[in-house]
Amino acid sequence: MASSSAAEAQDTSYVKMDKEADATLIGKHCQLEYCNQLDFLPFFCQSCKKTFCLDHRSETAHKCTNAGAWAERKRQAQLSRTSAGEGKRMRDLVSQKPCAATDCKTIVGTSLVPGVHCSSCNRDYCLKHRLKEEHDCKNKIPIGARPAGLDVAEQTRSAFAKLKAWGAAKREMAGRALPKPKPTSVSARLVAVNSLKKSAKGDAKLPPEKRVYLYVEAEAETTTAKNYKGEFFYSKDWVIGRVLDAAAKSLQIENVNNQSAEERDKLRVFHVEGGRVLEFNEKVGSALVSGNTIVLLRGVGPPPDLIEM
User: Which residues contact residue 247 at a Cβ distance below 8 angstroms, ignoring those fewer than 6 apart?
Assistant: First the structure.
């Protein structure tokens, strides 16, 4: 009660009198001349120091004879508070450093020598060396600038070299015989897709217009099932990561992608027709079409970043 009264006293000219703090307080009459109402929870005016009821507690309601005294005391108390920078010297508020010019020992950042910042080389100088000609700005490498390394042509050659090395390493590491793409002619593909639709397995509740029919294969040594090939259909709204989980479960392949941070333990989806490893967040409808073949491979890793910026 006392804390609430103190908080209220900071925002209003009146304060509720505390019955628990004052044992003699059993109610007081409002001191407004025409009221005189007995109030068991009276209010004390901090301006005229009189007691009033609920209806006449404000300075305006009881026409306070010393109106504004409480507000003036509060303003004076705020003005008497010490400021945040009082007692500190100027050098405590600025950053002091030597002039960046060679052989100059002048300290900049003081109240007498504020220093001049050069936006070209990103350094601070004294007044004597503030001009670019004075501190040899054109021959200085700007602080924080990216070093002038390889040009665009060299970066491109490096990117192709990385891609070539990555492809060779993958072929030599695995020695895997990937399946050949299915027939690409329109008539042959239609026949293959129609045959695939009859044998593919999947969620029967999935609408036909949202189905993408795929040939799914895996390496024989990665699965515990007798048959490491299958024909399935998935929703075109799925992402590749979800397809990987479903295919691994169907072919009984151990999937530790969510348990291991090592790339050699992770399964990846290789798109035979596209000749690339698919990203986990790619949509099935944008990366695959019915009749395509995907292979679950372990440890191939995603394609590397070709140009490191």
Answer: 216, 218, 230, 232, 253, 269, 294, 296
